[in-house]
Design a protein that fits this description.
Elements: E1 3-9, H1 12-22, E2 27-32, E3 36-41, H2 46-54, E4 66-70, H3 75-80, E5 86-88, E6 91-94, E7 107-110, H4 123-135, E8 141-145, H5 151-158, E9 163-168, H6 171-183, E10 190-194, E11 205-211, H7 214-226, E12 228-240, H8 244-253, E13 256-264, E14 267-274
Length: 276
């Protein structure tokens, strides 16, 4: 459905009055600038808004109104154009609408992210994919904490892992991870849970993946450490270089030893093992 934008020349101190008065008249949104208030309205409600601007609100209008009819846009299609395929750690990550040939030597992982996830793969994700390529082993049992799209668990499964348990507290992430598991033909090997670390069903994992943020990781470390099987490897990401020292100290408190580290720009990732 088309939307009408009405540019109302007005002083910034009058915008609050205009918004308060017009908000109940079918207005869909407002945009402020130093010299005008732009009112976005359903064309059917426009006559009432225009009438108000030329009568009760006229004293707050400092110039002629400008109107523009905005045609409907397929925002999802526009958003999809911003998603590009990437190569990281020997993985070729692509959305379904990109049909480029997988580069030689790469493992294809198909990921259709929901719009709520943003429009690209973050550096912290790329760091984890590099770590998975170096540390994943055949027949690993995998745990992906804060799974998001499920890309990390899927990459591990397509590298030969036996099974993956993944969890996220966001219902959209839960749905998206399940969808992406189907796209990659690994749904039978990937169990998706809604919630925090308390929903973990397995006792021991060979490969643990956690790409979240510093404080969430620090709070989760004792539980994740307790789930590590003998010889397990755990990759931590979503961290800045400035987080390094405090994370090293937190790892020691959970009886974990830091190993290989990865860096991209200001982002940092570390792989750890359990002492003993």
């Amino acid at each position: 459905m088309a939307t009408l934008s009405i540019t109302v020349p007005s002083k910034p101190e009058h915008h609050g009055i205009l918004v308060a008065f017009l908000d109940e008249r079918g207005v869909e949104g407002f945009e402020e600038s130093d010299s005008a208030l732009i009112v976005y309205v359903d064309p059917e409600s426009a006559p009432e808004v225009l009438d108000a601007l030329s009568s009760e609100l006229e004293r707050f209008v400092s110039g002629p109104l400008t109107k523009e009819l905005i045609q409907p846009t397929n925002w999802n299609a526009e958003w999809e154009k911003t998603i590009e395929s990437i190569t990281a750690g020997g993985f070729w990550i692509r959305p379904t609408w990109n049909t480029d040939v997988t580069p030689e030597g790469c493992i294809e992982v198909i990921i259709d992210p929901k719009m709520s996830f943003g429009t690209g793969y973050h550096a912290s994700t790329r760091l984890m994919l590099r770590g998975i390529a170096d540390h994943a082993q055949s027949d690993d049992d995998v745990l992906d904490a804060g799974s998001g799209t499920g890309v990390l668990a899927i990459a591990a499964l397509k590298s030969g892992a036996r099974h993956a348990d993944v969890f996220d507290f966001d219902p959209i992430c839960e749905e998206n991870a399940k969808e992406n598991a189907i796209l990659n033909d690994v749904a039978a090997k990937m169990s998706v849970y809604l919630g925090d670390e308390s929903v973990i069903s397995g006792d021991r994992y060979d490969l643990i993946l956690a790409n979240i943020n510093r404080e969430a990781l620090r709070g989760m470390l004792p539980v994740l450490a307790s789930k590590m099987a003998p010889g397990a490897r755990m990759g931590l990401s979503g961290l800045l270089l400035t987080d390094r020292q405090i994370m090293i100290e937190s790892l020691a408190k959970s009886d974990l030893t830091g190993g290989q580290e990865y860096q991209e720009g200001q982002w940092w990732s570390i792989w750890v093992t359990a002492n003993g």
